Each structure stands twice: as C-alpha cells, then as structure tokens.
Amino acid sequence: MKQFTSIHDVENVEALIEKALFFKQNPIHSYLGERKVLGMVFFNPSLRTRMSTQKAAYNLGMDVIALNAGADGWAIETKDGVIMDGDKPEHINEAVQIMSSYCDLLAVRTFAGLQNRLADYSEAILTKFIQLSKVPILSLESATLHPLQSLTDMMTIRELDIKKPKVVLTWAPHPKALPQAVPNSFLQWVTKSDAEVVVTHPEGYELDIQFSQDCKIEYDQNKALEGADIVYAKNWSSYSAYGHILSTDRSWTVTKEKMALTNNASFMHCLPLRRNMIATDEVVNDSVVINQAGNRVWAAQAVLNELLNYEKENQNINEQGRFAYR
Amino acid sequence: MKQFTSIHDVENVEALIEKALFFKQNPIHSYLGERKVLGMVFFNPSLRTRMSTQKAAYNLGMDVIALNAGADGWAIETKDGVIMDGDKPEHINEAVQIMSSYCDLLAVRTFAGLQNRLADYSEAILTKFIQLSKVPILSLESATLHPLQSLTDMMTIRELDIKKPKVVLTWAPHPKALPQAVPNSFLQWVTKSDAEVVVTHPEGYELDIQFSQDCKIEYDQNKALEGADIVYAKNWSSYSAYGHILSTDRSWTVTKEKMALTNNASFMHCLPLRRNMIATDEVVNDSVVINQAGNRVWAAQAVLNELLNYEKENQNINEQGRFAYR
Amino acid sequence: MKQFTSIHDVENVEALIEKALFFKQNPIHSYLGERKVLGMVFFNPSLRTRMSTQKAAYNLGMDVIALNAGADGWAIETKDGVIMDGDKPEHINEAVQIMSSYCDLLAVRTFAGLQNRLADYSEAILTKFIQLSKVPILSLESATLHPLQSLTDMMTIRELDIKKPKVVLTWAPHPKALPQAVPNSFLQWVTKSDAEVVVTHPEGYELDIQFSQDCKIEYDQNKALEGADIVYAKNWSSYSAYGHILSTDRSWTVTKEKMALTNNASFMHCLPLRRNMIATDEVVNDSVVINQAGNRVWAAQAVLNELLNYEKENQNINEQGRFAYR
C-alpha cells in the first residue's frame, strides 16, 4: 500500500482488517519501524487520532514528530500563483516537500471549511500532500473522508461477529455544523462488506450520491431502526445546502426507547460524542464506543505496518526523490 | 503501588525516597518501560513537571505522549448528566477511558479553579481519572495536592542529612491567587518524617486543618524562623476566604536578614519563584532550589518504576478492562 | 565542540561539513545518543528547525523534549534584579539551570525583538543559556545568528561543487520586518570559504560591518548578479535604522530575467519563502531550496554528534554541575 487516504488505496480490505485484529492480540510484534520517523501534521485538533496513531507508531518502534500547523510552525499558503504579501509566510509546495524529507511516513489531518463544497470535495490540501510528498501519506481525516476511522469501524463490526448484519447509519442533532467525512467514509467501507446498510436522516441531509448509492435511504428513523443489528449515529451538516444546519430536531437523539426497536443492536459512534444530543447517557453507557475508539490503535498500526513495508521495498526511489527541485 | 495521587497511595514512603535517591546515582538502570507509553494530559501549563517526568520516563525506556487538553485535543465536559449543547464536544467519561486505553500509564495535571472550595476539594477531575482509567494514574498536581513535588521535597531534605530538623513552611507574598496544593501536600509528607514542623503565615491564611493538624502554627514569621534548619517558602491564597488574597505584605518576603535568624537554614521552594516577592535574589542564589527542582526527575522515575511494576503484575486484569462498555 | 552558537564554536569547519555530508549518506550510523535527551526550547515558531533537528536526534538514537516557552511552560522573566510582580512567574536564571538539568543537550531558539539594537545584539537570552546551562547549548537561531542554517548552506554549496564560486547575497522585499540573523550568519560562514562574496541591497540595508567586512557591497542588483554561480536571496530589516522597513521595492524580487544575468546560478533561500515577493514561482521551482532545507537534518546531526562526543568526554564535570546553588 503506497498511501492510505481512502478505501481505494487498499488492495485487500479483508486482509487489512485481519491485520488490525492480529495487532490487537499481538501489539508488540514487529520492529519494522525502528529508526523510522512518523511525522504528524494537524490542521485542526485531535485527541483519539493523535494519541492512537502515536501509540501505534511506538508499538512498531517508530519515533514520532507531531506538529500543530500554524501554532508550532508557520501559517501555510495553499493557493498557487499568489503574491505572498499577507499573513502566511510559508507555501504548501515547500512545506510538504520539506516535511516529507524529514520523515519516513507523513500523516496529515485536514478539515472541511464547510463554506465551499467544491473546494472541500476537491481535497486541495490532501491532494498537495499526495502530489508533493517524497514518502507515503496517511490521512488522519481529510475534508471529506476519514479512512482510519472507517477501518476501525469495520474491525469493530467484525468483532461483533454478526452474519449479514443490518447496519443503520443515523443522523443525530448537534449544535455545530460538522463535516460529512465520517459518514461518507463509513458508507464507502461498510457497503463493501456483507452488511445491509440503511441511512436515515431528516430530508435535506442526503449525502453525496457517490457514497450513498448502495444504501437504502429511509427518512423515518423509527422505521429504519427496526431490526437493526448495529446503530451508527453521527451528525453531519447538509451536503446540498452545503455546510448548513437544517435541523436541530431532538427527536432524532438516539434513546433507549429507540434502541428497543432494534434487534438488540450495538450502538457505535466515532467520538467525541455530545451526550444527550447524539444519544442519551443510557445509550452511550451501554454502547461499544470505548472498544471502538480503542480499536483506533490497531487500525493505525495495521496501516503504518503496510506503509512501512511499502517504503522498505521502495527505498531507492525515495532516495532519488530527495533531489526534487534539482 | 497501583496509583500515585497522594501519600495515601504509598505503602512505604521511606523505600520510595530511597528509590529516588538510587535513581539519582543510577539513572539508566531499568528497562522496565521499553515499549510502554506514558500519556501526560495537561489541563494547565507546566515546565518542571512536564520535562522532568518525560525525562524520567525516557530513563526507564518509555515512550511519551504529551497532550495539552483543550489545545491539542477537544474542550472536555466534566459534569455528568448534562445536555452537551455548548462549547465542549467531549465528555470526560469517554476521554479518560479512551486516553487510558492508548497508554500504559496515564499522568494528569489538573488545577484549582479557586472559585468554589467544595468543588476544588472534591478533586472532581482527578477522581474521574481514577475511576475511569484502565491503567495506573499518576498525579502531576491536582486541585489540592502535588505529591510528586512533595516526594521530591522529602528527598531533598533527606540529602541535607539533618537529624530531627526544624522545618518552617512560610507563606510569602505573590501578586496572583495561588492554589493550596503545594503547602497541603508538603505538610502531608513532612509531618510523616522526624521533622519538627512549624507553619507561619498572616492570619486568615490557615490551611485546611486535615493538613496542618500535626504542625505548630506561628503567626510571627521572625519567631517561627528562629533556629530553623529548613525554610520552605510558598504563596497560597486563603482557604477560609476561599481563593482570596488577604495580604500582599512584602515584610513576609524572605530576606537575608530573616535567614540570619535561622540555624543556617537551607531555603527551599517548588518553583517557579517570583524573585524579590517570595524571596530576595540573595536568598534564592544561596538556596537549594536548583538541586530540589533537579530531583523532580528522580522522584518521578521512582514513581513510574513502581507503577510499571504494578502494571506488569496486573496485566491480565488490564487486558479485560479494555472491553468496558461491553 | 562544547557548544554550537556561532562559527566561533567550531574548531574545524571543513570537518563539520564533511561530517554532515557523511550523515546524508549514512543516516543511521552512530548510537551515541541512546538514552540521551535533547531538550528543545522555542521562544518563537519553527517548522524546519523543529522537525529537522528532532529527526537528526532520532537518527542518533536520542529522545526529544520540545517545549514552546510561554505556551507549554510559563512566561519567563529575563531581566536580573527585578521585583517579579507582573505577568512572568518564572525567572530565566532558574529556568535554564533546571531545563538543562533535565536534558543531556539543550537547544534554544530565541528571536530579535527588532526594537532595540543593543539588546538584540547582546544576545541576552542566548547568553543566559550559555552561562547557566549545565549541558552543551545548541542555537536553533538566535537574535543575530543562525549557525545551523549556515552550516546547511555551506554543505549545500559544497554539493554544487564549484571552484571559487561567485556567491551573491541579495536582499529581497518582504511585507514584515525580519531579523538579520540569517544574512549575518551566512556571511560569517561563506567568507571563510573560497567563495567570492558580493552583497547587494538598497541603500540603508547595510549589515553590521563585523559580518560584511570581507564582502564586496554592490547597490546595483543587476550588476551584482552578473556571473554569479550562487544567488542567495533573503529579506532583512535595516540595521542602521534598526528594525525598520526602508524599502518594499518589488524590482528587487528575483525573477527569471534576473537569473539570466548569472552564470546559470543556483538559487538558495533558507525558507519559509514568500513566493512572488522574494522570488517568482519560476525561480523557486527551478531552485535548490528543497535540497537545501533537506540538508538541515544532516547539519543538525553532525552538530549533535559533536556535542554528544563532547558531553561524553566531560560527563564528570557535568555531574558536579548538578549541585549549583549548593
């Protein structure tokens, strides 16, 4: 695997899930990362992703450099061709080439501005990283996808060991406008499994068709939940009225009563979770979210392991890459 | 030792001091920490604690993840049962369980708000960490105690090698309202030693009786200092008029003249120290504060070593803990 | 080498450049840094310096503690003799002694305030670090010098393999007032090589004579560029009208047309570089700046290696240093 930015980078999804489950049982297995450095660049905050990926790297013997872009480093200009006479002293063209020359793997977390759909869905920053990096790129969430979370989710579903589960992705209310990255990515992965997938949300919250095309859409949440084996709750802002909050309807909050409609379903969420907005305390306390979040380590470790393997096999090519710009 | 949050967690105080002194002579002794991760979560800033604990962890072969809560991660809701529709997207219930699942030991620094005595003295955040963590908790200072500092202080006093020393804890002026954590904790530890302990401060600065009950209280600073072998200076805000500054009387600043009243006493302070407020330049320059602060490494190393030993012996229990919330 | 704060600390410049080139070919060569800690203290932001020095330390097997002064730690008072009743709770006298007692090497990045020339050129903060540290000090840029950058620059020029190159340091426009550290330091190093050095800038931008005395100064940029083998562009604020911007003349921007005046020169810059201010996109894209910035790792590794060697030979002296202030 030469990079990990979406499911399309993964040759064998099943094997990757198996690898993650293997590392959960055998955390300290490989020393592939010794004297290798993982660079992590954050354009927005992160707790689980930051800590779990760092732990995964340490399990493989890697060293880690974590950088908060803008705070630790310089504000970065991402547009080409501009006269840089404003607030941003560093251009992404140099920043990425250089950061990647200081690391063996480069992980980046970008975000959706939620102002301009075309801009977000073009993944401008992540694309720059992919184009300019001399080393493999790992997405720690991008404007429209969160593949590390989705791999974790698939691993967690696998652990539940249900044949052809009915998986319901339900929208839930939230006070702020959130990106579509987690639901987009979840659908991308879960529809490749044997699950029956239903998406439920108020009208106007339809996700980009490229992600939802293999799912049933059901606007009646109660109907959607009937017989569910897994309930995956998440808020997102509107894709059509881009970035807007169209509903704060608290009747969409997942309650014990709603869970009673299911087939004794497991409740999942990527966290952070606003209690009594997304789901009630009772639902959260009886959920699998802690095991799910804990699995982030093993998903990251499986991905880092694959990228290190790729890098090992391609070391000579990378060495040559060092002399770009001459 | 299954956690380190106060002296009450320590079975054998003497042995722990001896261990700290041992590590000072033998910094690179044990490899107990190899492929183990120390997570450090800071709810307020820190220089000595941050660096010295990190150095101690490295001496034991550990890796470290340091997180500034709120800056690197998300703002954290600490109250139970609330509808999370405000500024704080993450609940402490999930945050602690998850952070602890990413680490082998979890260290946390909390602080006193100094608005509400009951809230501070209930140690709400630290208690959550203790209740919810799957791995041993290490306090890097809490709202009311600072046991790592106190262990360091006892080690430093031990190095002075004085039989039944007269130890005087003196209040000193400061422009800001400070917590009582350091003096509380110091009294908790020093009264367990063979020292004669005198506390001196302006009226109204009496500490919580649970900490001062075994000390003599003397409101005349000069009288208190007579014959002292050790002078430990510190500012704190009022406990009775909770969090208030009742005095900024600079006659309490420790001067060369005041030190002349003592039995050639050693001057101690936990740092950071405001020069010419707490004590004059002369007193600071002729003090043991640098050796004292340097000892933080060895105190932390002794504690981490004990916690790693505990964790090693209880690994199976921890593994089961991974599946909380299912 | 007992410290690295300017070229004057280097016994053998040639050997240091050779060592850096050696590490570029043999990154994982020495294990001198095992169980040693590099402390890095930043008084202002940094990307290249932070990441490249950290990578260099990891290549040598070191652990790293990186601290943003003021954000991670406390605001630091740097003046002696003051009554510390203001915003700064920590004095640099204690801070440096203590940070150095927690590390095996201490790296510090300070900055020019650009308000007071005497203050900046006295290097007050760096000098405190040198005076008070118990371990070797490494400058990560100071108010008036940037020796790690200059070593990198010399290494990059060496790779170009030109006998007696004509090196032109040209001022270029920039929207903010910048320090003179990079040009000062570059002249300090490049004038020790076999290069013919010309400095070109608008009148009023003359650098401190101690750095420019061995160079030709040419106020006509086009004339200066004629026959150049290397063009090193950099903005700086005025030394005589200290810290002021005297010109924003965009005719000084390095363009393809200007580069055509040279002897097919290589374009260098320390980065971050404001595109289309300092130089046009075309010039940057056809430059050696990425290789140059990449070389920061090897320069840092050579320096750390020398400092570790020094520290190894002087361990007993350092041990004694631990008991300053008694």
From TrEMBL, chains A, B, C:
Listed GO biological process terms: citrulline biosynthetic process; L-arginine biosynthetic process via ornithine
Binding site for N(2)-succinyl-L-ornithine: 141, 174, 234, 274
InterPro entries the UniProt entry points to: ArgF'-like, Asp/Orn_carbamoyltranf_P-bd, Asp/Orn_carbamoylTrfase, Asp/Orn_carbamoylTrfase_sf, Asp_carbamoyltransf_Asp/Orn-bd
Alphabetized SUPFAM superfamilies for the sequence: Aspartate/ornithine carbamoyltransferase
EC number in record: 2.1.3.11
Catalysed reaction equations from the record: N(2)-succinyl-L-ornithine + carbamoyl phosphate = N(2)-succinyl-L-citrulline + phosphate + H(+)
UniProt pathway: Amino-acid biosynthesis; L-arginine biosynthesis
Ranges in coiled-coil conformation: none
Keywords: Amino-acid biosynthesis, Arginine biosynthesis, Transferase
Binding locations of carbamoyl phosphate: 46-49, 74, 109, 146-149, 270-271, 296
Domain Aspartate/ornithine carbamoyltransferase carbamoyl-P binding: residue ranges: 2-159
Domain named Aspartate/ornithine carbamoyltransferase Asp/Orn-binding: residues: 182-305
Molecular functions per Gene Ontology: amino acid binding; ornithine carbamoyltransferase activity
Protein family (similarity comment): Belongs to the aspartate/ornithine carbamoyltransferase superfamily. SOTCase family.
Matches recorded under PANTHER family: ORNITHINE CARBAMOYLTRANSFERASE, MITOCHONDRIAL, ORNITHINE TRANSCARBAMYLASE, MITOCHONDRIAL
HAMAP family: SOTCase
Description of how the protein assembles with itself and partners: Homotrimer.
Functional note: Catalyzes the transfer of the carbamoyl group from carbamoyl phosphate to the delta-amino group of N(2)-succinyl-L-ornithine to produce N(2)-succinyl-L-citrulline. Is essential for arginine biosynthesis.
Protein name: N-succinylornithine carbamoyltransferase
Organism classification: Bacteria, Pseudomonadati, Bacteroidota, Cytophagia, Cytophagales
